[in-house]
Amino acid sequence: MGCMCIQNGIAQKTKEKLQEDKTKLENDIAYTNKLLSETKKNKQISLNQLIILNSKINQRQDLIGNINNEIDDIDGKILNSAKETYKLAGELKTLKEEYAKMIVFAYKNRNAFTRLMFLFASSDLNQAYLRLKYLQQYTLYRRKQAGLIMQAALLLNEKIIELKDIKSGKSTLLQSEEAEKTLLAQEKDEKNSAVKKLQQKEKDLLATIKQKEKESKKLKQSIETLIANEIKKATEKSKTSTSTSTTTTSTSTTVTSTSKELGLSDADITLSNSFASNKGKLPWPTEKGVVTSTFGVHSHPVLTEIKVKNNGIDISTSQGSKARAVFDGKVTGIVSIPGANMAVIIRHGEYLTVYSNLTEVYVKSGDAIKTKQNIGLISTDTDDSKTELHFEVWYGKILTDPMNWLAPN
After folding, report:
1. Residue predicted with more confidence, 333 or 115
2. Any idea where the domains of the chain sit in the sequence?
3. Which residues pair with 307 in a beta bridge?
4. Does the pTM of the predicted model rise above 0.70?
5. CATH topology of domain 2-198
6. Which residues contact 8 (CB under 8 A, 6 or more apart)?
7. Tens of pLDDT along 93-112?
8. Which of 76, 201, 226, 406 fits a 20 to 30 Å CA distance from 287?
């Protein structure tokens, strides 16, 4: 019985997790639909529209996968429930057979005279007492057996109803899966149509790729210059310091070559360690959004033979959305990039986070920043109906994948 309770608990937990994931995916699709509606205000098909549509297709495929997992989970429950129903039916049959034998015996020995003869036939008083106890216990056993039959019948009935409900739930899920597959097919047709239209604008797309590469290079150079200046200042400070090689740090901090190179204080090193320990748990730099371009080198969504490189991730969000800091830190630079608006750079010890494509900035260099503090307004491209934040994470002079740092969204 204890084992069954544990299994039921695990099954319930699995069901709750699947339903939680399903709800999240449905909310993600609803938000992506909202972004897609905004891009469709521009009657000309845009690259951003295609990218968001791609995101929705991926979300829809995940949702179908989730529904399949739910169906598999239900199939397992149907099998277990059917086994339990079969077992209960067998137990009920055995109980009824045993009870029928007792009824037959009771009928044959139904009158008081027979029972008295059974007692008087005892060889002594002790045997008569034992026979009397036997008759009393037999009567109690019959009553108990009748109760067990009723209990088993109720359990069997409950299991039959439960099995019907589970099968009904599976039927609903199968209908939902078919509906999602139909929507997925429509979205894929829409995507293929968009790709064909955009392929006719190859010249414009190539110009956009070149512009993005120029902006990315400018931002990277600005960050590298900023880091180089910080290292230079730290080196000069170290030369003028009387304790050049006897820096003492608390045992709770970890001093690395990067922290030495940047001349970080104990407080900065502690912040750095705290940032590192929160890897995979940092809040997102936008309250809501869809990742429309991932870190690293990948094929262009339309001109697939062309490879594009992203030094961070791009997040599409709603018009009027604000960029927010992912961790405590200090504003170490604000960069203006021609064609790409402004970028805010925040230092978290050895780490930097970069928030680019801002039309307004709410902070200034040197400001202490708190986690989730709004730092600027994300630019909206009205021609493309696109509101997109570019986000990067650096460790010293090394670019890292922001997705590895952010909490599951």
Report:
1. 333
2. 2-198, 202-241+255-404
3. 299
4. no
5. Helix Hairpins (1.10.287)
6. none
7. 776 676 566 566 655 555 55
8. 226
